[in-house]
Amino acid sequence: MIAAAGRSPLDFLWFLPSAGDQRYLASTDGARAATPGYLKQVAIAADQLGFSGALMPTGSHCADAWITAASLAPVTERLRLLVALRPGLTLPAESVRQAVALDRISDGRLLLNVVTGGSSELLARDGIFLDHRERYEQTAEFLDIFRALGRGETVTREGKYLSIRKGRLEFPFVQKPHAPIWFGGSSDIAREIAAEHVDVYLAWGEPPAQLKDVIDDVRARAAARGRTIRFGVRLHFIVRETEAEAWDAANDLIRHVTDDDIARFQAALARTESVGQARMRDLHKGNRADLEVSPNLWAGIGLVRTGAGTALVGDPATIAERLEEYAAIGIDTVIGSGYPHLEEAYRVAELLFPHLNLVNGPKAQEAAPQFPFTTLRQAAAS
Q: What are the Luciferase-like domain coordinates in residue numbering (predicted)?
């Protein structure tokens, strides 16, 4: 169990598949559309099972994160809603008003995930044409204004990308001074922004020994500014009662993935400017022959998926040990996912959660309906 002396409990969130869900990668067999009803099922299940929050992704391929989150706030009770802030798409004054509205609707359950974006090709679809460094410079200006407004200041700024004159937020956040800000980025400028502005720094699931260098660096940059921040990791999970069953499930997930699929996807991925995405790609190098890049850390998802490309694969006790290795380097937050997300939420909660010391574990279990998880599964599917 993750409960080492002096170590914080683990904050475990889930992922909302607002671009659609799958049973197999590179196949439509068993695929599910991101209908409002299905997203509601996943969110209610995560809420009842004891996950502390849900990440809503963003991009032209996803249902809008803000409207989706607003629709889920009334049907969930404890689930925090991790919603994307998009510098360059919305001005900070409008973004902070939207954030306050959702924080108030959800009674203080809003979390903010700042997404700068790593692909000029994809960002152009949204009308953003800045290069990599310019995008992050704009993000820094955005967060400076957003946070000042959130603190209740009257804000005047004249920036390279963003300006505001005597801006003020009239309705305060429920959370003080504002909803927590989460952010991920592996480049040097991204780490500087994290050190200056954010509450939680997010990384994709690299091997712990490799990820430790990133965390140590960001922590040192924050300390130089007199700040402390928390650290989280984004991982997929394939948990089964035995190791053999888990690895069979991992191999089954990519049963339809062909070498041509991998080649096409990796060629497209090579065009991104994202440093974090390059680090993910370097774990497998497009080679499906040796995908266990660290004990129980499997890079098969990254063969044909952007973003988080690794999964922890194994039986519950073993995966809990691997999470302890992440905790030892400073990780206190996990955003998990699995295919399909409804069923895998139950597997993670039923099999893995009893091995973990969770932030809201006991509270969530006390508040949850007192009937078996199998009944919860039926209720979520109805």
A: 11-332
